[in-house]
């Protein structure tokens, strides 16, 4: 049964009634308001406020505003007068139930009407959008057709002009040939008979000189990838080349910087032992520097990352400890008996960093992984049980 709200307040003018209902810490999205001309309900579980209004109101002109911690309902009066009370003075439950049912029925009809109006408005908007789109498409088709007609007319005109020009040129050539024939005939009639043999021989035509031969040297840029261009993906290859160039620049920088080191400082194993000794004496920063220099020379030794994670744990660099432990675990694949102890150490160090960051669920997974490798380790059993107790205690406290 809902709890009735009794600490409401109301004020009025000759035209409007204002009702203030406290929401008692309820969020605005959980408040349900139902208003008709003679009934008002504000429901926010488990509280309920309902009012059987003293006189009828204009529901269409009324409004409700949900503010922080309060609901303000403005009811517009149908007649300009002052109410003696906010609600009717009646204790007839049957009459109240009838008013409530009638109000809820009106409210449902109002919602249905609004829904129908909204649906009709959406249909009208979709119809208008469709008609507009069809009109635009039709205009675009007409524009394209006009362009086609103009282009066709222009092409036809050019073709007719070209044909006319060709016809004129053919006529001019035929007329010129006739004139040359007449001229040659006249020349033949004027020449003496003794030179007729020379005139009958055809003169050789002037031929162009033969072209000189030359050799053209063609060179090709060697392709980086062995596959054909049509079978490769240029974007991925370009990205690979960029990364390779960056890696080469980084290696060259390291070589230049490492050139001044002593012979023993270029030995990753010697640097690892040096870092281990610094760690044993509590000089964690020097140990980190030794491990850093060793990793720059050989990035495939898991112990360097695992030991540097232990240094970061001591220094409080928890995120770096997680990163180095994860890198060590990635290098300790596949899991075999020879690297079981190293995997257990890396898992415990990452789990410790997670727990210090209060990420107990992640830390528990790493401790359980280490315990699976070394199930008879009492210290691991104790730490794993302590983490489980912390998680269960937090869950119980939250519950």
From TrEMBL:
<dbReference type="InterPro" id="IPR008978">
    <property type="entry name" value="HSP20-like_chaperone"/>
</dbReference>
<keyword id="KW-0524">Neurogenesis</keyword>
<dbReference type="GO" id="GO:0043005">
    <property type="term" value="C:neuron projection"/>
</dbReference>
<dbReference type="InterPro" id="IPR011990">
    <property type="entry name" value="TPR-like_helical_dom_sf"/>
</dbReference>
<dbReference type="GO" id="GO:0003351">
    <property type="term" value="P:epithelial cilium movement involved in extracellular fluid movement"/>
</dbReference>
<keyword id="KW-0677">Repeat</keyword>
<keyword id="KW-0539">Nucleus</keyword>
<feature type="repeat" description="TPR">
    <location>
        <begin position="344"/>
        <end position="377"/>
    </location>
</feature>
<dbReference type="InterPro" id="IPR007052">
    <property type="entry name" value="CS_dom"/>
</dbReference>
<dbReference type="InterPro" id="IPR052004">
    <property type="entry name" value="Dynein_assembly_factor_4"/>
</dbReference>
<dbReference type="GO" id="GO:0007399">
    <property type="term" value="P:nervous system development"/>
</dbReference>
<dbReference type="InterPro" id="IPR019734">
    <property type="entry name" value="TPR_rpt"/>
</dbReference>
<dbReference type="InterPro" id="IPR037894">
    <property type="entry name" value="CS_DYX1C1"/>
</dbReference>
<keyword id="KW-0802">TPR repeat</keyword>
<dbReference type="GO" id="GO:0036159">
    <property type="term" value="P:inner dynein arm assembly"/>
</dbReference>
<keyword id="KW-0966">Cell projection</keyword>
<dbReference type="GO" id="GO:0036158">
    <property type="term" value="P:outer dynein arm assembly"/>
</dbReference>
<protein>
    <recommendedName>
        <fullName>Dynein axonemal assembly factor 4</fullName>
    </recommendedName>
</protein>
<dbReference type="GO" id="GO:0007507">
    <property type="term" value="P:heart development"/>
</dbReference>
<dbReference type="Pfam" id="PF04969">
    <property type="entry name" value="CS"/>
</dbReference>
<feature type="region of interest" description="Disordered">
    <location>
        <begin position="136"/>
        <end position="216"/>
    </location>
</feature>
<feature type="compositionally biased region" description="Basic and acidic residues">
    <location>
        <begin position="168"/>
        <end position="204"/>
    </location>
</feature>
<dbReference type="GO" id="GO:0007368">
    <property type="term" value="P:determination of left/right symmetry"/>
</dbReference>
<dbReference type="GO" id="GO:0005576">
    <property type="term" value="C:extracellular region"/>
</dbReference>
<feature type="domain" description="CS">
    <location>
        <begin position="3"/>
        <end position="87"/>
    </location>
</feature>
<dbReference type="GO" id="GO:0005634">
    <property type="term" value="C:nucleus"/>
</dbReference>
<keyword id="KW-0963">Cytoplasm</keyword>
<dbReference type="GO" id="GO:0030331">
    <property type="term" value="F:nuclear estrogen receptor binding"/>
</dbReference>
<feature type="compositionally biased region" description="Basic and acidic residues">
    <location>
        <begin position="136"/>
        <end position="157"/>
    </location>
</feature>
<dbReference type="GO" id="GO:0120293">
    <property type="term" value="C:dynein axonemal particle"/>
</dbReference>
